[in-house]
User: What shape does this take?
Amino acid sequence: MGSSWMIGTPFSTKEELFYRKDLCRASVKYFFSFDSHVRRICLASVHTVDDYLGGSNMNVVGLILGGGAGTRLQPLTKERSKPAVPIAGKYRLVDIPISNCINSGIRKIFLLTQYNSVSLHQHIAATFRFDQFSGGHVRILAAEQTPDSDGWFQGTADAVRRSIRYFMSDQPDLVVILSGDQLYRMDIRKVIDAHIENGADLTISTKPVMRDEAGALGIMQTDQSGRIIRFSEKPGDTPLLDELRAPMYEEERYLASMGIYVFNMEVLGELLCKSCDSDFGKHIIPGAIESHRVFSYIFDGYWEDIGTIRSFWSANLALADALPSFSFYEMQAPVYTNMRYLPPSKINQCDVRHSLLSDGCIISGKSIVHSVVGLRAKVGEGTEIEDSIIMGADYYEHGPVLHSSGIPMGIGKDCVIRQAIVDKNVRIGNGVVISPEGKAADEQHQLYWVRDGIIVIPKNTVIPDGTIL
Assistant: This one.
């Protein structure tokens, strides 16, 4: 595609003023001097996604948005970003979109980060290393100060706009934008197939939802061809919602945006440069619907937005069901994560039912029921755990306990833990009771938080013997 679009001369300090808002529109000419006619011909000549991803003429990059401060997931996000939050005992949320990209043949991946990103950077560096022969990369693009911009990313679109120069060197024809805090398994090649077949400028993945969910989501209205003709952000349970009902379903269904987009590169550049708005969902997408060919790709598989403590807790525990809606046991499209080379978990004694048990644990409790137990977790004799997430520890303690409390890492003897999330490196003494029972739906204490009716023990917390929470 070298002949069908031009990058121009190397950047200079003056030219990089692209990132100034007052030069957004002027920069289109410099950064995106495309031969649009030739590019349309090239896209039209692609018949299958295998041609598209495997051919020498086309490039696809994946762009994963690391999200904002994650306030609704606190205290889990007090010391880490949303994509770095552990899930299913041994994975992190960011493993999901990266694995979806790799399994779909997309191996040029960029991760945009901002808040509490150290542990996320460490995880990416330790996990996703491609060899020099097969090619590919997962690169982190962190918010940075430049001569022309000294602030944080102001939204999803602003993050992409300020990072665009870093993935332009890959000369992408399509850019796939994904969220870093969702649980789903998707073959992105099918989305790209539909995108090419429709001759779309932008394709938005949508999920059919029922009315009780639709009011709080971004809802798309399409025509019979699947082209999006209207978008409403969180319409609520109003007459407007009735107008947005999806016509292709006999039951009452609405098409909710999943926050997963496939852009033609030239269109992405045009939309970001002609407007300085900061968010895709609120600003860029509604404008694109009016001016470009925007289509819906309907996804009927499992999808969960991990945006609150309640949704995080529910999604994790659902993984422990006998037949979960989402399974990590799908070897045709595995979820990749850091290989830690931990020993097998050891169960000295315990009644374990409908639970996930991760590597390196030592379990001596009375019962673990419908729970998820993370890496290196230790559970003492007589302890009962039910409907809870135990995240485990980042390291093993060896020899005598050196912590000032004298309490070893893990959960002590004869404890009762129900409807809880226990973050990493927590020290829980003997005879401790942890439950949200009798507490307000949302409250904060020195030793715990209650969010959405779930009690959460923050990372590195120490709970003395006999404490009843």
About this structure: Residues 1-48 have pLDDT under 50 and may be disordered. The CA atoms of residues 6 and 23 lie 20 Å apart. The chain is about 20% helix and 25% strand. The chain has two domains: 5-316, 340-469.
